[in-house]
Amino acid sequence: MVLVVAHLLLASVMFFSIGSAEMSSKVGVCYGQLGNNLPSPQESVELMIKSLKATRVKIYDANPKILKALKNIDIQVSIMVPNEIINNISLSSQTLSDQWVRTNVLPYLPGTKIRYLLVGNEILSLPDKSIWPNLVPAMRKIRKSLKTLGARKIKVGTPSAMDVLQSSFPPSNGTFRSDISESVMRPMLHFLNRTKSFFFVDAYTFFPWSSDPKNIHLDYALLESTNITYTDPVTKLTYTNLFDQMLDAV
Question: Please, are residues 35 and 7 in contact by the beta-carbon 8 Å criterion?
Fold first, then answer.
Protein backbone atom coordinates (compact mmCIF):
# COMPACT_ATOMS: atom_id res chain seq x y z
CA MET A 1 0.00 0.00 0.00
CA VAL A 2 2.68 2.51 0.96
CA LEU A 3 6.13 3.11 -0.46
CA VAL A 4 8.33 6.07 0.43
CA VAL A 5 9.99 7.37 -2.73
CA ALA A 6 12.16 10.51 -2.87
CA HIS A 7 10.37 12.32 -0.06
CA LEU A 8 6.96 11.54 -1.55
CA LEU A 9 4.50 9.01 -0.23
CA LEU A 10 3.28 6.75 -3.04
CA ALA A 11 -0.11 5.33 -2.24
CA SER A 12 -3.31 4.04 -3.67
CA VAL A 13 -5.73 6.93 -3.27
CA MET A 14 -8.83 5.34 -1.80
CA PHE A 15 -12.20 6.92 -1.44
CA PHE A 16 -15.70 5.58 -1.50
CA SER A 17 -18.68 7.00 -3.35
CA ILE A 18 -21.39 7.00 -0.70
CA GLY A 19 -24.34 6.89 -3.08
CA SER A 20 -23.17 4.01 -5.26
CA ALA A 21 -20.85 2.20 -2.80
CA GLU A 22 -18.12 2.17 -5.41
CA MET A 23 -14.42 2.55 -4.72
CA SER A 24 -11.96 4.57 -6.72
CA SER A 25 -8.49 3.09 -6.98
CA LYS A 26 -6.01 5.22 -8.91
CA VAL A 27 -2.36 5.72 -8.12
CA GLY A 28 -1.63 9.03 -6.48
CA VAL A 29 0.92 10.77 -4.31
CA CYS A 30 0.55 12.05 -0.77
CA TYR A 31 2.86 15.06 -0.89
CA GLY A 32 4.31 15.55 2.57
CA GLN A 33 6.47 18.56 3.39
CA LEU A 34 8.03 17.56 6.70
CA GLY A 35 11.74 16.95 6.30
CA ASN A 36 15.11 18.45 5.42
CA ASN A 37 16.56 19.15 1.96
CA LEU A 38 13.27 18.48 0.21
CA PRO A 39 13.17 18.90 -3.57
CA SER A 40 11.48 22.01 -4.92
CA PRO A 41 7.80 21.78 -5.89
CA GLN A 42 8.80 21.87 -9.56
CA GLU A 43 11.21 18.94 -9.08
CA SER A 44 8.62 17.02 -7.08
CA VAL A 45 5.92 17.53 -9.69
CA GLU A 46 8.32 16.37 -12.40
CA LEU A 47 9.00 13.23 -10.35
CA MET A 48 5.25 12.58 -10.03
CA ILE A 49 4.72 12.80 -13.77
CA LYS A 50 7.82 11.15 -15.22
CA SER A 51 8.76 8.55 -12.64
CA LEU A 52 5.54 7.71 -10.82
CA LYS A 53 3.02 8.55 -13.56
CA ALA A 54 0.68 9.76 -10.84
CA THR A 55 -2.79 10.97 -11.75
CA ARG A 56 -3.64 12.46 -8.37
CA VAL A 57 -1.86 14.26 -5.55
CA LYS A 58 -2.89 15.15 -2.02
CA ILE A 59 -1.20 17.99 -0.17
CA TYR A 60 -1.74 18.60 3.54
CA ASP A 61 -2.47 22.31 3.22
CA ALA A 62 -2.92 24.74 0.34
CA ASN A 63 0.73 25.56 -0.29
CA PRO A 64 0.79 28.24 -3.02
CA LYS A 65 4.17 27.16 -4.43
CA ILE A 66 2.95 23.60 -4.90
CA LEU A 67 -0.37 24.69 -6.38
CA LYS A 68 1.45 26.94 -8.85
CA ALA A 69 3.82 24.09 -9.80
CA LEU A 70 0.77 21.93 -10.57
CA LYS A 71 -0.72 24.49 -12.95
CA ASN A 72 -1.59 23.25 -16.45
CA ILE A 73 -0.66 19.67 -15.52
CA ASP A 74 -3.04 16.75 -15.87
CA ILE A 75 -3.04 15.77 -12.19
CA GLN A 76 -6.11 15.98 -9.97
CA VAL A 77 -5.31 17.81 -6.74
CA SER A 78 -6.64 17.47 -3.19
CA ILE A 79 -5.94 20.35 -0.82
CA MET A 80 -6.61 20.55 2.89
CA VAL A 81 -8.06 22.95 5.44
CA PRO A 82 -5.66 22.82 8.45
CA ASN A 83 -6.89 21.10 11.61
CA GLU A 84 -6.22 24.16 13.74
CA ILE A 85 -8.77 26.42 12.03
CA ILE A 86 -11.69 23.97 11.86
CA ASN A 87 -13.22 25.21 15.12
CA ASN A 88 -13.02 28.81 13.95
CA ILE A 89 -14.63 28.03 10.60
CA SER A 90 -17.41 26.05 12.26
CA LEU A 91 -18.21 28.53 15.01
CA SER A 92 -17.77 31.83 13.15
CA SER A 93 -19.84 33.41 10.42
CA GLN A 94 -19.71 32.27 6.80
CA THR A 95 -17.23 35.07 6.12
CA LEU A 96 -14.21 33.16 7.43
CA SER A 97 -14.95 30.15 5.23
CA ASP A 98 -15.49 32.41 2.21
CA GLN A 99 -12.19 34.16 2.90
CA TRP A 100 -10.30 30.86 3.12
CA VAL A 101 -11.70 29.69 -0.22
CA ARG A 102 -10.99 33.06 -1.88
CA THR A 103 -7.38 32.95 -0.70
CA ASN A 104 -6.51 29.28 -1.09
CA VAL A 105 -8.68 27.99 -3.93
CA LEU A 106 -9.92 30.59 -6.39
CA PRO A 107 -6.51 32.06 -7.42
CA TYR A 108 -5.40 28.66 -8.78
CA LEU A 109 -8.51 27.76 -10.78
CA PRO A 110 -8.92 26.55 -13.44
CA GLY A 111 -5.21 26.04 -14.24
CA THR A 112 -4.58 23.77 -11.25
CA LYS A 113 -7.06 20.91 -11.21
CA ILE A 114 -8.28 21.16 -7.63
CA ARG A 115 -10.92 18.44 -7.38
CA TYR A 116 -11.17 17.72 -3.65
CA LEU A 117 -11.10 19.97 -0.62
CA LEU A 118 -10.42 17.98 2.53
CA VAL A 119 -11.41 19.52 5.85
CA GLY A 120 -8.73 18.52 8.34
CA ASN A 121 -6.69 15.34 8.53
CA GLU A 122 -7.86 12.35 10.61
CA ILE A 123 -9.74 14.64 12.99
CA LEU A 124 -11.63 11.77 14.64
CA SER A 125 -8.33 10.22 15.72
CA LEU A 126 -7.19 13.32 17.61
CA PRO A 127 -7.20 13.29 21.43
CA ASP A 128 -8.71 16.79 21.39
CA LYS A 129 -12.39 15.87 21.19
CA SER A 130 -13.51 19.51 21.10
CA ILE A 131 -12.92 19.53 17.34
CA TRP A 132 -15.11 16.50 16.64
CA PRO A 133 -18.55 18.17 16.77
CA ASN A 134 -17.27 21.04 14.62
CA LEU A 135 -16.01 18.87 11.77
CA VAL A 136 -19.24 18.41 9.81
CA PRO A 137 -20.45 22.01 10.34
CA ALA A 138 -17.09 23.20 8.96
CA MET A 139 -17.49 20.89 5.96
CA ARG A 140 -20.93 22.37 5.31
CA LYS A 141 -19.59 25.92 5.43
CA ILE A 142 -16.69 25.16 3.10
CA ARG A 143 -19.12 23.52 0.69
CA LYS A 144 -21.39 26.57 0.80
CA SER A 145 -18.43 28.86 0.10
CA LEU A 146 -17.40 26.81 -2.92
CA LYS A 147 -20.94 26.95 -4.33
CA THR A 148 -21.36 30.66 -3.65
CA LEU A 149 -17.98 31.56 -5.14
CA GLY A 150 -18.40 29.48 -8.28
CA ALA A 151 -16.26 26.42 -7.54
CA ARG A 152 -19.14 23.93 -7.48
CA LYS A 153 -17.24 21.02 -9.01
CA ILE A 154 -14.87 20.67 -6.06
CA LYS A 155 -15.97 17.91 -3.70
CA VAL A 156 -15.67 18.38 0.07
CA GLY A 157 -14.63 15.54 2.34
CA THR A 158 -12.31 14.63 5.20
CA PRO A 159 -9.78 11.78 5.55
CA SER A 160 -10.47 9.26 8.30
CA ALA A 161 -8.05 6.79 9.79
CA MET A 162 -9.05 3.16 10.25
CA ASP A 163 -9.50 3.75 13.97
CA VAL A 164 -12.90 5.35 13.27
CA LEU A 165 -13.96 1.70 13.33
CA GLN A 166 -14.72 0.12 16.67
CA SER A 167 -14.48 -3.29 15.08
CA SER A 168 -12.91 -4.34 11.79
CA PHE A 169 -12.49 -8.09 12.26
CA PRO A 170 -13.98 -10.04 10.75
CA PRO A 171 -14.85 -7.56 7.97
CA SER A 172 -18.54 -8.42 8.27
CA ASN A 173 -18.43 -7.05 11.82
CA GLY A 174 -17.21 -3.61 10.73
CA THR A 175 -18.79 -0.92 12.93
CA PHE A 176 -18.03 2.72 13.64
CA ARG A 177 -16.91 3.68 17.15
CA SER A 178 -19.78 4.29 19.53
CA ASP A 179 -18.41 7.69 20.54
CA ILE A 180 -18.73 9.06 16.99
CA SER A 181 -21.24 6.86 15.16
CA GLU A 182 -24.35 8.96 15.83
CA SER A 183 -22.84 12.33 16.68
CA VAL A 184 -20.37 12.63 13.79
CA MET A 185 -20.45 9.75 11.31
CA ARG A 186 -24.20 9.77 10.64
CA PRO A 187 -24.40 13.51 9.78
CA MET A 188 -21.12 13.25 7.84
CA LEU A 189 -22.39 10.39 5.69
CA HIS A 190 -25.65 12.27 5.09
CA PHE A 191 -23.61 15.28 3.95
CA LEU A 192 -21.39 13.21 1.66
CA ASN A 193 -24.39 11.46 0.16
CA ARG A 194 -26.33 14.68 -0.39
CA THR A 195 -23.38 16.41 -2.07
CA LYS A 196 -22.36 13.30 -4.07
CA SER A 197 -18.96 13.40 -2.42
CA PHE A 198 -16.73 10.63 -1.06
CA PHE A 199 -15.71 8.95 2.16
CA PHE A 200 -11.91 9.20 2.25
CA VAL A 201 -10.07 6.58 4.28
CA ASP A 202 -6.38 6.18 5.11
CA ALA A 203 -5.87 2.42 5.12
CA TYR A 204 -2.34 1.34 6.06
CA THR A 205 -1.77 -2.39 6.48
CA PHE A 206 1.40 -1.63 8.45
CA PHE A 207 -0.47 -0.68 11.63
CA PRO A 208 -2.51 -3.88 12.19
CA TRP A 209 0.49 -5.99 11.17
CA SER A 210 2.88 -4.16 13.54
CA SER A 211 0.45 -4.54 16.44
CA ASP A 212 -0.03 -8.28 15.86
CA PRO A 213 2.88 -9.68 13.79
CA LYS A 214 2.46 -13.15 15.30
CA ASN A 215 -1.01 -13.63 13.83
CA ILE A 216 -0.74 -11.47 10.69
CA HIS A 217 1.81 -12.73 8.20
CA LEU A 218 3.97 -9.99 6.68
CA ASP A 219 3.37 -11.20 3.11
CA TYR A 220 -0.39 -11.04 3.74
CA ALA A 221 -0.01 -7.41 4.84
CA LEU A 222 2.20 -6.56 1.86
CA LEU A 223 -0.25 -8.06 -0.69
CA GLU A 224 2.44 -10.59 -1.65
CA SER A 225 0.97 -13.76 -0.20
CA THR A 226 0.42 -16.69 -2.54
CA ASN A 227 -0.91 -19.27 -0.10
CA ILE A 228 -2.35 -17.35 2.88
CA THR A 229 -6.08 -16.64 2.90
CA TYR A 230 -8.76 -15.70 5.39
CA THR A 231 -12.47 -16.53 5.06
CA ASP A 232 -15.06 -14.36 6.79
CA PRO A 233 -17.31 -16.75 8.77
CA VAL A 234 -20.44 -14.68 8.04
CA THR A 235 -20.10 -13.62 4.40
CA LYS A 236 -17.94 -16.62 3.40
CA LEU A 237 -15.81 -14.19 1.37
CA THR A 238 -12.19 -15.29 1.10
CA TYR A 239 -9.43 -12.68 1.32
CA THR A 240 -5.93 -13.02 -0.06
CA ASN A 241 -4.51 -9.86 1.54
CA LEU A 242 -5.02 -7.61 4.56
CA PHE A 243 -5.77 -4.51 2.51
CA ASP A 244 -8.96 -5.95 1.01
CA GLN A 245 -10.00 -7.09 4.46
CA MET A 246 -9.64 -3.59 5.89
CA LEU A 247 -11.55 -1.92 3.07
CA ASP A 248 -14.41 -4.42 3.32
CA ALA A 249 -14.71 -3.63 7.02
CA VAL A 250 -15.21 0.02 6.09
Answer: yes
